[in-house]
Amino acid sequence: MEHIVLFIDAIVDLSNAMAFYILFGLLFAGILHEMVPETLVSKHLGKDSIASVIKATLFGIPLPVCSCGVIPLAASIKKNGASNGATLSFLISTPITGVDSILATYGMFGWAFTIYRVVTSIIISMIAGIITNLKAPGESKNSQPLFTMAHSKPVNPSTVLVGTLPNNERCSADDCGCGQPKAKKRFSFIDAMHYAFVTLLGDIAKPLLFGLIIGALITVAIPKNLSDILITYHWISYLIVVAIAIPMYVCATASLPIAAGLMLAGVSPGAAFVFLSAGPATNTVTIGVVKKMMGTQILTIYLVTIGIGSILFGFGLDYLLDGVNVNEIIHIDENPGLIEWISSTILWGFVLYFITKPYIRPSKIKNTGDKNNDL
Predict the structure, then answer these.
(1) Is the pTM of this model over 0.90?
(2) Which of 16, 196, 321, 372 is the most exposed place for a label (fewest CB within 10 A)?
(3) How are the residues of the chain apportioned to helix, strand and coil, as percentages rounded to the nearest 5?
(4) CB neighbour list of residue 268: distance below 8 Å, 6 or more residues apart
(5) Whole-angstrom distance, CA of residue 303 vs CA of residue 291
């Protein structure tokens, strides 16, 4: 019974620390989605140059694109002429950060940790892109066509990829703000709010719930002797975390409570940072798409750069924070105020709604045929 109470307390503490910043970040993400034209992304990334890699990385940092949405968006800019290096750097930088996760990181870990996360993701993304342009410029010989089907005209990349994703990772071009560019339209606050609190929050609701649960479980369930081992032998914790993070599907925001749980359980901030860096940037689906879209050589660059870069920057963070109390890094208020409680209640209301919606209102499959596309 004691462990159950500690588990519930841990979930409440984690959600109170994050909720306000997640909601504010979602609001900003919706406005940004309405204001930034999608053609801006695919217009500047076509050359095998350092400039295209830098542009792709910087474009990806603030974009409010979910972890699944980056796949069809990266596929789209690749199809529209982006270089391999630019595509890969965009594919890495975008899911690690985003306005919602940046603000949530600040809310839980403070500005110093947040800036370190953003800067290191930029460096890892640029290194991967530059190496790719040097080692595998242009079209990769090992890559396979991803956007065409036999005896048919080219297919929208987001349409192709939707069918390849697991159920919890599927999204359409409209849902994730990705795919082919749309015609310029007037700013709509209603559309911005719909994207923020229906499309984007609906997409991260399940991984966010799992992240909170896993983070709370780690906080109360990791044995003291295991945390002592991970503290004594840092390199073991780095390798364990990176091995878990690379194949795991977790969005940037949902990775935060897991990282906080690791740190509260005694794992070093550097090892927790490895999870924050490698977790959102990779997963089994993205690995398969990168191999198919750009080939084995670029896939190797992608995985090695993220793995080694995350570990090195994890070492660097532990060096910078040597002697610092973990409780001074994680901003979890033991006496949250009214704003924190209201924000947490609103966030949980949204999350539970999106989690239960498929069961309360099961979608009806319409069998209307495809008369308009008959040839």
Answers:
(1) no
(2) 372
(3) 70, 0, 30
(4) 230, 231, 234, 237, 314, 318
(5) 11
